[in-house]
Design a protein that fits this description.
alpha+beta; 60s Ribosomal Protein L30, Chain: A; five-stranded mixed sheet; two-stranded antiparallel ribbon; 3 helices; 29% helix
């Protein structure tokens, strides 16, 4: 089954890739690796979630924000592969940052929403290494930001 067919089966329509908000590019292709800049929870051109997890943002909304970041990562993957997600050989690594209160320890559980989506879409090729880090602030006051390293054919 193609990745596009898998997305359709899962009822997922990829968003338009988000344009950079500062002096960087959305992704860099170097050989067979693609480094994708941090994606934030933008949906339909607007930030879908803002605030600090554990204070303003519930666990459930933080997970939804992480999933939206993952959808935006897949949209960037599609752009980086010239529209052919079947060129993705492996999701190598996700680097995730969770804007949270001091003492919050569920960053890995929040980021599982993104990791689970990668496996749902790409199967074993979606299994990756990962960092899930808590931080005291993120750009535009978003609760989650995730970047990725992928291997392509």
């Amino acid at each position: 089954m193609t990745i596009d067919a898998r997305l359709k089966e899962l009822g997922i329509e990829l968003p338009t890739p988000v344009a950079p908000v500062a002096n960087y590019v959305p992704f860099v292709v170097s050989g067979n690796l693609v480094s994708i800049s941090g994606q934030i929870p933008v949906r339909d051109g607007k930030i879908a979630y803002t605030g600090k997890v554990g204070a303003d943002v519930s666990f459930e909304d933080a997970c939804a924000a992480a999933r939206q970041c993952a959808l935006n990562l897949i949209a960037q993957m599609k752009a980086a592969t010239g529209g052919d997600l079947d060129r993705v050989v492996r999701v190598v690594k996700l680097g995730a940052f969770v804007n949270c209160i001091d003492g919050y320890g569920d960053q890995p559980k929040v980021v599982n929403a993104a990791s689970d989506l990668m496996v749902d879409v790409f199967g074993d090729k979606g299994r990756h290494s990962r960092s899930a880090v808590g931080t005291n602030a993120l750009p535009l006051n978003v609760p989650v930001e995730i970047d990725a390293l992928i291997e392509i054919a």
